[in-house]
Amino acid sequence: MNIFKYIKKAIVFALVVFSLSLALQSPSYAAGLEGKWKLTSLNDSPVPEQFNITVAFDPNEGRITGNVNTGFAPISYFGSYKSTENKIELPNGVVKPLIYFGPEGEEYFSTLNSAESYDVKDQKLTITNYRDRKLSFVKAE
Fold first, then answer.
1. Which CATH number covers residue 79?
2. Verdict on whether the full-model pTM lies above 0.85
3. In whole numbers, what is the pLDDT of the chain averaged over residues?
């Protein structure tokens, strides 16, 4: 009969270990960022019609990619990011061509490169930097 006591203890121990392993797994906070987004406003000002900026987040790779189209040809940019809960960081900023994108484009990259937090609600993404500058996006198709 003592064998059943040891089996019971082993089962309880296994359940405790299993529960702890589930509790300690880091959730995928970045899943809310996942996908392609289109910029709609820059620091609460609407983006000019001719200005088309997109960004895409890949949480599996920790990569950010996007395009800026100011009326000529789309220009790509990319980088890496880290996120936890509602915090985001682009440790090395984004890599983009050494082209002047106008004041809106430069403000976009400045705000994105200094991003600290994000919020996803109703298919809308808001990224905020340390100066409380905001980038607002809608989910793109």
1. 2.40.128.270
2. no
3. 83
